[in-house]
Every structure is written in structure tokens, then in C-alpha cells.
């Protein structure tokens, strides 16, 4: 399977604040990667998961029915707020578009399940949109590109439509009522011409300037790993460091100067670090950290691991079988709000490709996705 990089210019929800109470609510059964402008963020290719991460029955179905797919994400799904599994959701790249497939607990294909409030959401093609919606879009956004169109029918039978388009390099969410009449529209931040790709970079490959800062200013931290983020041709380096209570992310430009994280348009501003309360980088306070100042969120029960030997043997065996030659980066053990046993989140790299995985305490794969 070809492994290149996902273009990730922007990630945003389909709906924003300002919609009325009767307006369409977000589809919480979809992850952002597949429910928003995914196709426009694939300019530099696709990052693939090993198909061995699929349940055997699911793999058989896709092999037989979905030609030439690239596996992007696989996740065991649970009834909202419970530990009862209803099946598996798989996202594949097919003909340049992300497509979701749903399977029950036996691996048999099933229709898309209702959302947490019982709403039924259906993906639509351009031809399936009501004529009034197509007419409105053609008149208002001449030459637009359709990204995704969905209908949502609530438990009371009320139907609404949401459409995401690209117009003049701007993505726009347009909402319609059940009759196809325009309701509202929201533009999302970020320019679609900006390409963002992410890859793992060994410490030895960092610039001397970055290494100097790490060994001087941040000598009291434990080095985790580094990522190269390229925004529209401009490289930025995120270095993950750990103290006794949590991780931090230090952001550098190509010259080794500390900067704040790049925004959707690829801009940088003076800054240095991001305090992180989970296993990955998140925007936060740009002030320099002091060792021990990061605190995991209350009740999260996080236990960070920089030593791969602390993983259960079942997880280690799974990684060795399915991600041959991997580089272990970090793991955390936590108990989710709806669970009674801990789960392991694992970050690793194979070559320059980054992956995020989640396992049960017994070593069962719950989620896997390729970063890029």
C-alpha cells in the first residue's frame, strides 16, 4: 500500500455557533476527518494503515467489494455513553474521496447507524439533492465544488440538509430546511490552497540550532520525539518533551527559532511552547513551561509511558506483527469516563509515517489511524 502524506490544511466542524435550536446539529457518529473537507486536504496523497488492522470479516468484504481502496481509519464503535459495542466503522479513500463503511459485531455490512439522538443521517450525491438546493448553489456560488452533502431526519420526522462546498478556495457550509429552502451559511477559516503535511523526524535529523536549544534551555526535560510539519512549503518542527507530570511541545522554525504553532493559513508568531494534557500536541499557552507544571486533566487518570517495555505483551506482539520495524514514541494509560478498565493510547512511527492507536487493557485494537 502506498504511504504518502495527508494534506491537512484545516479541521473544523460542519456547524458553528449561531444556528437556531431547530438548525441541524453535528453528526456525532462521524469523525471530523471524514465529515468535513477531506478531499480538498488530500493534495499530497494518502496515508494508509496496514489492512491487517481490519477485522478479518471486514477485510474480506472490502477486498471483494471495494476496489483499490486505501485504509485511513478503523475504529470499534460503542453505543453512546456505554461500553456496548455495535460494530466497526471503517474509513477508506476510494476514487479520491473518503467513504465510510459500517459493520456489525459479526463483521457483516450494515447501514449507517442513527446518531446519539436517534437522528438518521444519509450521505447524498449531487444528483440526489433537491432541485431547489442545486439551483440555489448554482446561482449563489457559481462554479462551486461539492465536497459533501447530507440529509438529517430527526426522530420527529423533520428533515434538513447540510452541504459543504468549495468556492473561491474557501469552504462554506450551507444549510437548508426539509423543503430545500435556504436556512443559513457559514464560512470556515483557512485557505484551501495551503497544504499541511506531517511526518516523523529522528532526533539526529534535527538542525544543530534546534539541538542546541534542547540541550541548553530544556535540558531538564526528557526528549520524546520530533515531527516536521510543512505548511504550504514552509517547515515547522514540533518537539515533544516530557516532565514528571506531563508532556510539552516546543515549536521551532527551520532556523531553530522558537515560534508559536502555525495557524490555518500557515502563519507563525513569536512563541515557544504548548502545554499538553494528553498524548498529543494541542494549541495552548505559548509561555515557556517549567518542569512539573503540566497537570493531566482532573479525573483523567493518565499514566504516561516513554518506555515501550511497560506496554502489555499482547499490545507489543500486535505492533510487531502489524507495524514491522516501528519506532515507539509514547503511550498513555487512562480509564475513559464510560469504562471500568484502562485503555492504552500509543503513538508510533514506521519510517516517516506517524500512527495513533488505541487498545483495550487486554490488547484488543479499538482504533487505528494514520497521521499525515
TrEMBL record:
<dbReference type="InterPro" id="IPR021533">
    <property type="entry name" value="PepSY-like"/>
</dbReference>
<feature type="compositionally biased region" description="Pro residues">
    <location>
        <begin position="280"/>
        <end position="291"/>
    </location>
</feature>
<keyword id="KW-0732">Signal</keyword>
<feature type="domain" description="Putative beta-lactamase-inhibitor-like PepSY-like">
    <location>
        <begin position="123"/>
        <end position="183"/>
    </location>
</feature>
<feature type="region of interest" description="Disordered">
    <location>
        <begin position="260"/>
        <end position="299"/>
    </location>
</feature>
<protein>
    <submittedName>
        <fullName>PepSY-like domain-containing protein</fullName>
    </submittedName>
</protein>
<dbReference type="Pfam" id="PF11396">
    <property type="entry name" value="PepSY_like"/>
</dbReference>
<feature type="signal peptide">
    <location>
        <begin position="1"/>
        <end position="23"/>
    </location>
</feature>
Amino acid at each position: 500500500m502506498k504511504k504518502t502524506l495527508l494534506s491537512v490544511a484545516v479541521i473544523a466542524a460542519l456547524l458553528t455557533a449561531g444556528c437556531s435550536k431547530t438548525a441541524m446539529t453535528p453528526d456525532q457518529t462521524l469523525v471530523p476527518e471524514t465529515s468535513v473537507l477531506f478531499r480538498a486536504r488530500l493534495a499530497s496523497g494518502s496515508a494508509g494503515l496496514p489492512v491487517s488492522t481490519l477485522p478479518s470479516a471486514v477485510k474480506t468484504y472490502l477486498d471483494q467489494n471495494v476496489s483499490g481502496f486505501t485504509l485511513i481509519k478503523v475504529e470499534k464503535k460503542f453505543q453512546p455513553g456505554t461500553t456496548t459495542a455495535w460494530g466497526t466503522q471503517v474509513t477508506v479513500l476510494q476514487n479520491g474521496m473518503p467513504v465510510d463503511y459500517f459493520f456489525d459485531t459479526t463483521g457483516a455490512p450494515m447501514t449507517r447507524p442513527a446518531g446519539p439522538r436517534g437522528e438518521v443521517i444519509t450521505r447524498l450525491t449531487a444528483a440526489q439533492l433537491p432541485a431547489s438546493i442545486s439551483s440555489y448553489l448554482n446561482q449563489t456560488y457559481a462554479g462551486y465544488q461539492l465536497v459533501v452533502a447530507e440529509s438529517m431526519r430527526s426522530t420527529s420526522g423533520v428533515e434538513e440538509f447540510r452541504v459543504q462546498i468549495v468556492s473561491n478556495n474557501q469552504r462554506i457550509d450551507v444549510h437548508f430546511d426539509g423543503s430545500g429552502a435556504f436556512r443559513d451559511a457559514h464560512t470556515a477559516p483557512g485557505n484551501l490552497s495551503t497544504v499541511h503535511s506531517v511526518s516523523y523526524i529522528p532526533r539526529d535529523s534535527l538542525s544543530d540550532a534546534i539541538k542546541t536549544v534542547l540541550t541548553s534551555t530544556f535540558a531538564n526535560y526528557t526528549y520524546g520525539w520530533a515531527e516536521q510539519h510543512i505548511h504550504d512549503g514552509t517547515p515547522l518542527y514540533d518537539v515533544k518533551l516530557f516532565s514528571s507530570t506531563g508532556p510539552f511541545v516546543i515549536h521551532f522554525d527551520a532556523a531553530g527559532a522558537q515560534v508559536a504553532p502555525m495557524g490555518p493559513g500557515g502563519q507563525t508568531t513569536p512563541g515557544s511552547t504548548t502545554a499538553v494534557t494528553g498524548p498529543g500536541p494541542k494549541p495552548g499557552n505559548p509561555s515557556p513551561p517549567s518542569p512539573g507544571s503540566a497537570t493531566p486533566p482532573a479525573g483523567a487518570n493518565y499514566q504516561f509511558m516513554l518506555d515501550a517495555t511497560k506496554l502489555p505483551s499482547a499490545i507489543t506482539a500486535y505492533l510487531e506483527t502489524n507495524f514491522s520495524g516501528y519506532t515507539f514514541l509514547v503511550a498513555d494509560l487512562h480509564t475513559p469516563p464510560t469504562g471500568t478498565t484502562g485503555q492504552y493510547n500509543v503513538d508510533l512511527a514506521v519510517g516517516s509515517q506517524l500512527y495513533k492507536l488505541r487498545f483495550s487493557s487486554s490488547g484488543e485494537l479499538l482504533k487505528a489511524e494514520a497521521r499525515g
